[in-house]
Amino acid sequence: MKIIIVGTAYPYRGGIANFNEKIAKECQDAGHDVEIYTFTLQYPSFLFPGKTQYSEESAPQHLKIFRKVNSINPFNWLKVGREIKKKAPDLVIAKFWMPFMGPCLGTLGRIIRRNKKTKVISILDNIIPHEKRVGDKVLTRYFVKSIHGFIAMSKSVLADLSIFDTEKPRLFSPHPLYDNFGEEIPVVEAKNRLGFSADERVVLFFGIIRAYKGLDLLLKAFADKRIGDAKIKLVVAGEFYEDSQSYIDLIKALNIEDRVSMHTHFIPDSEVNLYFSAADIVAQPYKSATQSGVTQIAYHFEKPMLVTDVGGLAEIVPHQKVGYVVQPDEKEIANALIDFFENNRGEEFLPNIVAEKEKYSWRKMLESMDDLMKQIKQ
User: Fold this and answer.
1) SS3 of 119, please?
2) What are phi and psi of 79, to 5 degrees?
3) Does the predicted TM-score (pTM) go above 0.85?
4) Which of 41, 21, 43, 25 is nearest to 33 (CA)?
5) Cross-strand bridge partners of residue 96
6) What is the rounded distance in angstroms from the CA atom of residue 76 to the CA atom of residue 344?
7) What is d(CA 205, CA 157) in angstroms, rounded to the nearest whole number?
8) pLDDT in tens, 89-131
């Protein structure tokens, strides 16, 4: 097939770019002709909470990436839409993660599908955003109407889709593994490189820091005396996408400065393996969620996980099999961490993690795309 992916890719950074580049490579490996149309402007700078939208890594090899799309310029949408329409690909894939992108992607979809050949599908990160704003539903509905069919990566998102549409084809296909961050580093070496001794236990909080991700709950859990007595350390690895001062103040107020190591910059792809290799367990104390790419990185590095019972996280982290599913409560988080380290659950969970990760192949995502296309009647 001729496939065009519309969305974030190099020179932009982050999870959406990683996903689009990875699925492009997998489609190419399956014999398809693939292009990515990414942004000339993704977000206006005043809407972007981080330090930079751009990657400092080298460009991915063997991918055809074209910077064509301006997210806020309707004249650009018309031009790019007509260009893709004329190319008449068999399939266009639009990753959807926030209502802000609804007008741009929705207009492109409407124009492209007028050629009566191209099937336009969306792989949904979220359909309802974590941080709600006025107008979200209007923008999302505009996008949804432009799409032939949907793949949701969590059952909660699949259910949320029914708010906007109940008739178009849709499938659930879980987020595949992120296996593009290099090889695991020996744990003692990784811990030493991050400033820890071999006998210190490391909990990793990874990814951009926003209120819904519950870092404050994890910090409060680390105030538990048992955590300090057990020589358990927390590594916070990721960039603040909100004011950092409240977290700094909380760490001081809880008197846990000696238990928390802050690496609050964007972690480039080339360093992801260092942080996951050093971790004994990966914690995602989210207050709301759909699915998370962090769990799929943890599966790749075969690390146990602690997640909260929100959104679709519990779907992919079987409780007391590959980790823990707890309520978003600091006491429950602390209890789970103590149980993990005191009872050496890592050895117990490892065979289950190895078996469970087989469910999350990119081959299965491509099969879901094929199944969805068969259901679409133009």
Assistant:
1) strand
2) -65, -50
3) yes
4) 25
5) 124
6) 56
7) 24
8) 999 999 999 999 999 999 999 999 999 999 999 999 989 887 7
